[in-house]
Amino acid sequence: MRSRLSIYILMLAISSSLVTTGCAPILLAGVGTGAAIAEDRRTSGAFIEDEVIENKVQHKINQRYGYSVRVNAVSFNYNVLLAGQVPNEDVKRDVTALASEVPHVQRVYNETEIGPIMALSSRTSDSYITSKIKARFLDAQKFSVNHVKVYTEDGTVFLMGIVTREEADAATDIARTTNGVKKVVRLFEYGVRENIGNRNSNDYDRQR
Is-above-0.85 flag for pTM? Predict the structure, then answer.
């Protein structure tokens, strides 16, 4: 079992590296994007639009601030998480505004920190933490790994997804007990198990 878990962590780490270095098209061609959409609780339109939103938000922020900031945009079901480092409160407010201007964005969670840009070694550690959490999700088999989106920034783990309360708690427990995690922030949208599509879009649980 440990061997299988280690192999999966390694595969996830390689995947993250390929995306960072611009090799994502080669990777995505082999992992079955259609299957991922089929297993996702978002509509196919939301699944695709989230990718578009992330790219547009990232482009707007990079275009305005260049290398003076480091802000990553993560979108799930039209809700955007901003994480990274900015130089001051004015810039922090502005990146929220920039993200809000992108079509179809419903809500922006700005979790950026004011301070110097994080070192590459810390970013690598964050990627590894994310990989470990996803591997533990898979190993626990308490819910589909595709139902919870994981992003780690400076040891803080952000969890997004359309889930039941039981799934949210299970994901939180797994993330919180993963080595290297400092804290967990839940940005979940809850749905009814019998009909996950009938959900309250304003029912989010944001706990540290």
Answer: no
